[in-house]
Amino acid sequence: MNKKTIFSVLIFLFLVLVWGSSFILIKKSLQYLSPLSVGMLRVFFTFIFLVPVFFKYIRQINVHTFFYALLAGFVGNFFPAILYAFAQKGVDSYVAGVLNSTTTLFALIVGILFFKFRSNWIQWIGVMIGFLGVIGLLLFAGDRNVSWNLFHGSMIILATIMYGFNLHIIKRYLSFLPSPAIVSIAFSLPGLVSLIVLSLGDGEKIILNQDAWQGVIYVLILAWLGSAIALILYYYLIKIASVIFSASVTYVMPIVSLCWGIWDGERIGLTHILMIFVILCGVFLANLDVFFRDCNNKIAFLKIFTANKQ
C-alpha cells in the first residue's frame, strides 16, 4: 500500500471508532442534560472549535456555495444532533448505533429518487431486508413496549434519511471545497442558532449546576472529536470516494457501539444479535453492486484492503 491508501484506511478506522463511540457519549451526557441541551451544545461546541477555520475560508466562498454548505449544516448536523439526543432518551445506545447503519440504505434510496442513481432488484431486496431487521430490532430491544421503541427509533431513522441527503449534497455541490471549509461553514449559522436556543433555554441552568458540567464534558468530547475533526475527515472521504463507500463507515460502526453497550450493561440477547445481523445483511446487499463496481476505483473499499499497489 502507498501512503495515500494507508491514510485512507486510517481515516476509515478512526471514523468507525469515534462515531461508534458517540452513542455512549450521548447516553452519558443525557444523565445530566436535557436532550435539547445535548443537541445544541454539540452543535455550538463544534462551531466554536471551527471559528478560526471559518474566517480563513469565508472570503473564498460565493453565495451559491455558501447556501449549500449551510444546507448541509442543518440537514446533516443540526437536526440529526437534536433527533439523536431525543431518541436516546428512549432506546439503548447500541440500538442507536445499529440504526445509524441505515444511512447507507437511505443514501441509496435518495440517490435513486433524486440523483438518477441506477438500481437493481438485489439492491431493493437488500433495502427490504434491512428494514425488516430494523423493525425486528425495535420490537425486541430494551425493556420498553413496541410503540415506545418505534417512536424513538423513528427519530433515528429520520436523522439517517437526512444523512443520506447530506451525502449527496456534499458530493454534488461541495466536493471542490477543502473539507475544513465545508465543515466550518456548515456549522456557522447552526452554531449561532444553537447559541440563541441555549441562551433562551437551559443555558443559565447548565452554568449554575455543577452536576450538569459532567454532561457538558461528554458533549465537548463528542463535539470536538466526533463532529469537528471526524467530519473534516469524513467529508474528505466523500470527495475522493463514492457516496456509498463514504456512508459505509456506518457499516462497521455498530460493532463499536455494540461493544460499548455490553460494557455499559445494556441487555443484548441472541434475538438482538440476529436482528443486527439481518440489518447489516440488508445494508450489504443494497450496496453490493456499488462495492463490486468500486473495485476498479483507486480508493474503493475492497481495493483499500486487498491491493498491494494502485
How is this fold's topology laid out?
Elements: H1 3-29, H2 35-57, H3 63-87, H4 93-99, H5 103-114, H6 121-140, H7 146-173, H8 179-186, H9 188-200, H10 203-208, H11 212-240, H12 243-247, H13 249-263, H14 270-286, H15 288-293, H16 301-306
Written description of the protein model:
With 310 residues, this protein is an all-alpha fold. The chain has 16 helices and no strands. The longest helix is centred in the C-terminal third of the chain and has 29 residues. The radius of gyration is 19 Å and the shape is globular. The C terminus is likely disordered.
Seen as an oligomer or otherwise, the chain set is single chain
Quick one: how many beta strands?
A: 0
> Alpha-carbon distance between the termini?
8 Å
Counted by DSSP, the helix tally is 16
- In this structure, how is the largest beta sheet organized? none
Pattern of helices and strands = HHHHHHHHHHHHHHHH
Structural class: mainly alpha
Quote the beta fraction: under 5%
Task: Output the radius of gyration.
Answer: 19 Å
Instruction: Give the helix proportion (percent range).
Output: over 70%
Uncertain runs are 294-310
Overall mean pLDDT stands at 83
Shape: globular
